[in-house]
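One such given next:

>
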Amino acid sequence: MTQKQRRIIAALAVANTIVILALVVLVMRPSGTSPSLPPHFHTPTLPQGTCQWKATQLLAQAGLGGTVALTPGGPLRFEIAYSLAPGQTADEAAQLVWAALDVALALDEGECGSFTQVEVTILARGVQADTQVNASVSAADLVAFGAGELSEDEFVERVVYTTTALP
């Protein structure tokens, strides 16, 4: 394992620890002692935090490290960091979009079905260059695909992909 890979893994481990600690504090805080917040500030509900935690766990089980953000009634966002092996192309990293969509589909089957869009960003770090892959699809199309109402070809046509070479 290279030094660069070790740093990425360490950064992801720290990020996961912060998320876990935030969730523990949120769950353990007595209900009568919440600080007063300005009216425009939105405090996440427990199911949202639970959904984000579940998504992060499913990403880890798929061998991916990253963050998950869920906005109820809005997008479910995945940001995944991936180190390309020597000789591996960004196209191969783009296939990780499917793993993130599988996680989103698993969440929609449960109590996390309030998101309307799934957005995936993959930062593929390579030996020669870095590439960012973005994909976006409506949650309704994802659910239809999962239920067999859309064929794989029909679903792929509805997913918007962009790939950008980074300096």
Summary: Strands lie at 65-70, 75-83, 117-125, 130-138, 160-166. The first strand starts at residue 65 and ends at 70.
